[in-house]
Design a protein that fits this description.
This protein is of the alpha/beta class. It is built from ten helices and 13 strands. The strands form two sheets. The chain has an eight-stranded parallel β-barrel with strand order 4-5-6-9-10-11-12-13, surrounded by six helices. Strands 1, 2, 3, 7 and 8 form a five-stranded antiparallel beta sheet that branches. β5, α3 and β6 form a beta-alpha-beta unit. α4 runs parallel beside α5.
Length: 381
């Protein structure tokens, strides 16, 4: 799901070409304030864990406008024991490093502040899928800025929304992909951690033969599964089967669906219909996702596989200007068709990639569709 995840002609990649009736659970705040400074800022003394060995980080003011609640009993705190499929239910949205990570913004300033999570929650978002790590020179660590991620976790907890960390592997044989995924899985901040981990399976500009790429994908997936254990729900962000099997069969031939089936719990096809023409039959919010979901389940050999469909890109009113970048954006009216495709395929949730390419009307439309509209029952059981 990154803007440079380039693909062959006519291929779709996540950013370069590629609620409601569900009762929300309330999790107790699981983070500690060490002190209050002049009644304005929270000074936190933190231990940030990114790998098995603990990395100590000095105290710092995370944000002056984060409301701090100090639990009565530190001993009562704790990282949730199990990551379930619940964060994939209902309405979600997406952030990549170009949205929130300072090194990717102009002048080292992130395009969005963590306070955006409050806005998302107000618009009915239940889960934010965030690119918590990236293999690139602007991201020299195994995670993006830990303080930014820590504040994201705090704000998500306070707003009662889930935060799922995702990563785009490049299929190297040096262990770096696994290191990044382990870092996401292991990162904790004062009792908070990501509510889920998802793997963005799309990179094909690697010079590898398809069979070798598939072997590396399966091996990485197995290593991640071994690391998190059998009870942790993992999300697979995949190319839509229609793209792989109808539109561009050369994108990733013989994709290893059956070998991946036992390793992932939720499947997230990136059905970006804004890249498809009306003449193709897939240029609206319904057909591309509906057929891709059916094909996906058939490929997995599991008619009841859990699916969280991803649509877009973005959503704007008719004749609206592009919000960011050169990507063709979906129209707001297609969001209704996308929601209907989720319902008709009994998906557990859905989202549009990404938050910054949704105009105000699109965000309001999604909120209505998932709160009391046709998609209100997704994930309800």
């Amino acid at each position: 799901m990154t803007p440079d995840a380039a693909a062959p002609a006519d291929a779709v990649t996540p950013d370069a070409a590629a609620g409601g009736a569900v009762t929300r659970r309330r999790r107790p705040l699981a983070w500690i304030a060490a002190a209050a400074v002049a009644g304005a800022a929270a000074v936190l003394s933190a231990v940030l864990v990114a790998e098995p060995d603990v990395t100590l980080v000095p105290a710092r003011v995370v944000s002056a406008d984060v409301e701090v609640t100090v639990p009565e009993s530190v001993a009562a705190m704790g990282v949730p024991a199990v990551r379930t499929t619940e964060p994939y239910e209902g309405l979600g949205t997406w952030l990549d490093v170009f949205d929130f990570s300072p090194p990717y913004g102009p002048g080292g300033e992130a395009a969005l502040d963590p306070i955006v999570l409050d806005e998302m929650a107000a618009q009915g978002v239940r889960t934010v899928f965030i690119q918590a790590a990236r293999l690139e020179e602007r991201s020299p660590d195994v995670l993006e800025d830990r303080w930014v991620l820590a504040e994201m976790l705090m704000r998500a907890d306070a707003a009662d929304i889930d935060l799922v960390g995702w990563y785009l592997p490049f299929w190297g044989d040096d262990g770096e992909d696994l290191a990044h995924l382990k870092a996401i899985a292991d990162f904790t901040f004062m009792g908070l951690r990501f509510d889920g981990i998802a793997v963005d399976i799309e990179w094909n500009a690697d010079g590898l033969e398809p069979a070798e790429r598939s072997d590396r994908l399966v091996r990485l997936s197995q290593q991640l599964r071994d690391h998190v254990g059998p009870d942790t729900a993992l999300g697979a962000i995949t190319m839509p089967p229609v793209l792989l099997e109808v539109i561009n069969e050369d994108f990733w031939p013989e994709f290893p669906w059956a070998r991946l089936e036992p390793l992932y719990d939720v499947w997230m096809p990136m059905s970006y219909w804004s890249f498809r023409s009306d003449e193709s039959g897939y240029g609206d919010g319904y057909a591309y996702n509906e057929e891709s979901t059916r094909r996906l389940r058939n490929n997995l050999g599991d008619p009841e596989a859990l699916v969280h469909g991803i649509g877009g890109i973005g959503g704007v009113a008719d004749n609206a200007a592009t919000l960011s970048g050169p990507e063709p954006l979906a129209e707001v009216e297609d969001l209704v068709l996308f929601a209907q495709s989720l319902v008709d395929t009994a998906s557990i949730g859905g989202s549009i990639y990404d938050w910054r390419t949704l105009d105000p009307l699109a965000r309001e439309t999604l909120d209505t569709l998932f709160s009391d509209g046709i998609a209100a029952g997704l994930g309800a059981g």
